[in-house]
């Protein structure tokens, strides 16, 4: 990275075009301390809200259905509406960030998320709540789609791994603790408070964000492709319905029709992207071996994680006879291990190949999942706890280096596309994992949790092998950070 010349603008001095936003020069020096800490706090707050709200509603569904006089089946739309809105809008909003600025997309998403959270709080019918959740999902997509692109501007290149590790840790903790947070809040208050608490946090993040978040100085000049955004929504929407329908036992004819529709539209969608200078689906980035391998690693690993997270409560409660409280306590070592390991992995990722770090971490995750699948009938609490911790250590060692490699492999002006693909890979893996659990439970209800853990170990091992392939790419001339 070249040094700033004496004539270069100071990284913390706003230019007239940036207004109150701090504009980061093309040399990517990052923000100076303490500005950097305020900016990363804003990113962490927004990401926590977006990820947490994807998980907390599951726990409240029975209560919501009962109080809004809705059926259990229809209440699932409280979850599906949010998930669908996030998935179909991630890449379009990431591409928009490349053109109008990541700061603007992030703050707009935070505004929409906060207002929609108020709408969820005031909802008095299931259709109204589901509609508010759709807008909340679009707001969350604005936050998630560009958050890692913002991290790239907040941290200098030499410390990028630390920023990515912190962001990764926030996502992991919010995902893992979502059900526990929801249970605790429901024990003290009614379900609308699950959404009401977002409003003051969102307002505080906005107040800080307008002052602290940087604005990207280099933006794509390519016109926005609205037709591609529509095709993207149709393709990912149909894919989600097909995968979810397969897991929920939907008619095979409907599942096949949805999958076929996704494939046909996907063909025209990808063909259109190949002709674009800055495509909405970043096929140009997928031509970079390091980036493509990192995406594949991410999808497989998050599929393994979701297979484990969904099946473990059934294993601990239905198979081993533990209580809900015991189950929550025994799963806790997994996220705790991530909290400990993620910062270390971030520091290491600035010096060591992500291929090796990811390969070792995912091999540990696979080993931990196999050990959980082969538990005896009456395991000791410590026996369960250290296996959970091993899974957390493995996942924590993999994720930050993988995300850093993915982001660093993309050109600076395509950071939004890279950030969007990172979120899309995570959601794709999680959706596939949840559907596979439902499918496995339907085929083998008695041994479902154990089989799901074996399948999860297989996905983790496959991800480890794909990760190690990046070492070959590194030796072939890839950037050192990959």
Give the number of DSSP strands.
2
Low-confidence stretches: 1-27, 475-482
Strand order of the largest sheet: 1-2
Q: How would you sum up the major sheet?
A: 2 strands, parallel
Sum up the overall morphology in one term. globular
If you consult CATH, what is the topology of the largest domain? Growth Hormone, Chain: A
The fraction of residues in strands falls at under 5%
Cα(first) to Cα(last) distance is 16 Å
CATH H-level homologous superfamily name of the largest domain: MFS general substrate transporter like domains
- Helix content estimate: over 70%
In total, the number of domains comes to 3
Q: From N to C, what is the helix and strand string?
A: EHHHHHHHHHEHHHHHHHHHH
Using the 3D structure, state the CATH architecture of the largest domain.
Up-down Bundle
Rg calculated over all Cα atoms:
22 Å
